[in-house]
Amino acid sequence: MKDLQALKTTYDAAIAENTSMSEELIKERDKVVTLMENLKKSKGDVASLAKYKTQYLKLESDMKGLLAENEGLKKQNTTLTTQRDSTIVVLGESKKYNEVLVGQNEELSKTVEKGSKLTVLNMKTAAYKVRSSGKQIETEKAGRADVLKLVLQLPKIKLQNLATKPIMFK
């Protein structure tokens, strides 16, 4: 009877921990309580005592299994909590890095927008006829023009420091 009372106390302690297995533990504790009541009502003959002893041993082995499972779940919970915490840290770092990249992207977009505006200043064109000697003579007639000369000025583009560069027109 003392063993059954100790078993019931162990179940009560496990249930008090408020684990996810408390429903199973309550069922097993109720079985122990029922066994204790039956033992009190029994006549004390050898057959009924042997029956109650086997029930007690079965309940005790079930309790050990449930407590072992409970300990395993606690270890898994600890591991999962650690993994979750490290994942949250990595996620936070990734968000910060993403914010930096978004900021850089916005800056580059503004720079490209500034540089995409091309204006031409002081544009002068002239048509020339090229003689066999290579001398170029300015002409007003389009049919006689062999070469077009285009002189223009581009203001400084804010993308980079530009030097004088030849530009080909077709």
Describe the structure.
The structure is a single chain. Helix content is about 60%, strand content about 10%. It is α+β, with helices and mostly antiparallel strands and about 170 residues long. The chain has a 3-stranded antiparallel sheet with strand order 2-1-3, with no helix packed on it. Strand 1 and strand 2 form a beta hairpin. The radius of gyration is 46 Å and the shape is rod-shaped. The N and C termini lie far apart (about 110 Å). About 5% of the residues are buried. The mean pLDDT is about 80.
Keywords:
170 residues, rod-shaped
Layout of helices and strands:
Blueprint: H1 2-16, H2 22-41, H3 46-115, E1 121-130, E2 136-139, E3 147-153
Helix pairs in contact: 1-2, 1-3, 2-3
Q: How many DSSP E strands?
A: 3
Give Rg in angstroms: 46 Å
Within the largest sheet, what's the order of strands? 2-1-3
Outline the low-pLDDT stretches: none
User: Percent of residues in helical segments?
Assistant: 55-70%
- The secondary-structure element order is HHHEEE
Per the principal axes of the C-alpha atoms, what is the gross shape? rod-shaped
Euclidean distance between termini CA atoms? 108 Å
The mean pLDDT is 82
Main β-sheet, in a few words? Answer: 3 strands, antiparallel
Q: Give the class from helix and strand content and strand pairing.
A: alpha+beta
In terms of DSSP E residues, the strand content is 5-15%
Question: DSSP helix count?
Answer: 3
